[in-house]
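Sequence design from tokenized structure. All designs in this work follow the same two-part layout: the structure record, then the generated sequence. An example of the structure record is given first.
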């Protein structure tokens, strides 16, 4: 994770729009081989089951041949939005992991995030973070 893929006060109207905005940032940071291929993989994963995980957090993710290196991006939305038919989110962690070759790295990242996200103080600190460095330090190595 680096400051190029940490975004604040993002305006979006749909989960797909957020996923595409993050993919744009990941592509500009040279983390993707094929942005549209990666987006298609994330959307396919999202279609299989929602990645809204509770606590106003979503974790769209994919193992993809279109990803160069394991990546974790963070977006704090300007206002909560419906991620699926029922759940509102205001924070999104998007994960991209190269496939093949990374095994279950995406699951390790997800597990590390879930351990942190369940704590109110962690979410509150993310909600109040003013800089990408603050977010990166809070998330640490997951």
């Amino acid at each position: 994770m680096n400051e190029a893929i940490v975004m604040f006060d993002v305006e979006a109207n749909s989960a797909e729009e957020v996923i595409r905005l993050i993919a744009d940032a990941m592509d500009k940071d040279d983390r993707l081989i094929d942005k549209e291929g990666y987006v298609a993989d994330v959307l396919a994963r999202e279609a299989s089951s929602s990645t809204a995980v509770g606590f106003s957090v979503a974790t769209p993710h994919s193992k993809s041949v279109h990803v160069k290196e394991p990546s974790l991006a963070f977006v704090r939305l300007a206002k909560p939005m419906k991620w699926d038919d029922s759940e509102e989110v205001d924070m999104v962690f998007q994960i991209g992991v190269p496939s093949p070759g990374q095994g279950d790295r995406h699951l390790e990242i997800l597990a590390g995030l879930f351990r942190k996200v369940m704590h109110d103080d962690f979410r509150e600190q993310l909600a109040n973070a003013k800089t990408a460095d603050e977010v990166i330090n809070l998330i640490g190595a997951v």
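DSSP finds five helices and six strands in the chain. We note this feature because it recurs in several other targets discussed in the main text.
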